[in-house]
Each structure stands twice: as C-alpha cells, then as structure tokens.
Amino acid sequence: xxxxxxxxxxxxxxxxxxxxxxxxxxxxxxxxxxxxxxxxxxxxxxxxxxxxxxxxxxxxxxxxxxxxxxxxxxxxxxxxxxxxxxxxxxxxxxxxxxxxxxxxxxxxxxxxxxxxxxxxxxxxxxxxxxxxxxxxxxxxxxxxxxxxxxxxxxxxxxxxxxxxxxxxxxxxxxxxxxxxxxxxxxx
Length: 187
Hints:
α2 (about 20-40) packs antiparallel against α3, α6 (about 120-135) packs across α9 and α8 packs across α9 (about 165-180). The protein starts with a helix and ends in a 5-residue tail after the last helix. It is mainly α. The chain is built from nine helices and no strands. The protein has two domains: about 5-90, Rna Polymerase Sigma Factor, Chain: A (Orthogonal Bundle); about 115-180, Arc Repressor Mutant, subunit A (Orthogonal Bundle), CATH 1.10.10.
C-alpha cells in the first residue's frame, strides 16, 4: 500500500492538479529516464518517452486506483512506450565497439568506494553496459528494473504484467548472457 504522501499525490493527480504532474516527475523522473535510456539507448528518444509518459499519466490519472503504487504504474507506462518505439523501428543499427553506451544513453559512472580500486571501474562498467545493450528487449528491461532501479521481482512482475516465473527466467537468462559476454568478471 502506498504511503500517505503517495496517496495524497495520487489524489491530486486524479483531481488534475497541474503541480501534481511536476511532483511525479520530481519523485520518479530519474527512474523513468534511466529505464527509457537503457531500453532505447538514445537519450533524446528517452526524454521524448518520459514526456509522453507524463502526458499519459495526466490523461489516465482520474481512472488510476493506486492499488499497485504510483512507481509501478509509472514505470509500466514508460516500459510500454519504449516497447512501442522499439517495435516501430525498422532495424537496429549495430552497436559500434567504439561507441560509448553511457554517453549515448545519458548515463554516468558513479563508482562505489568499497570496490576493488585495482579494477578500472569505468572500463568494466562500459563493457557491462555494452553487453546489456545486446540483450533482447525483454531481458534488458528486467535487468534495468532489477539492478538499476532496484525493483523487487514482485514490482517487476506488476510493472510488466507478467508472472513472477517469467520475470525470474528472463532475469536468469539475461545474467547468464551477461556473464558469458563479460567473461572473466565475477558478480
């Protein structure tokens, strides 16, 4: 169940309070942008999706019951818009080995101090991001939701509208593919 701040925000959205949409962006904009950037691999297109998602949220808010929470509902809208855009693409340009996936997606490296400093964190992170971009869309979105956005299996299940077993199997296949692609790196 949503906390009191979230319930109040949902009520304001339902009432079409213009400030409420801005509050949604302040609260969830980073997660929305991260998901869209990771799925689409294009920062400008991701920004367009976030904008479209906010318009959809505004339009659909009066009918939103809030049973699953604002974050889940919002990320589901973003994921669906990303999938629609990916389906509309006639072909995917091959990912250049020289392309910097962090710059393309508008992401940044923010290393954790406790990591082994002998590793070149930036190189490892770029190789992992490059590997994530090669995953099929259904696997890439669960990896992003789980490891970038920190969603639980249940939240991913609700966001994508698929059974928990499907979430777990997609995640397992994705992690196996990433381990194979990265090679000697340990998780």
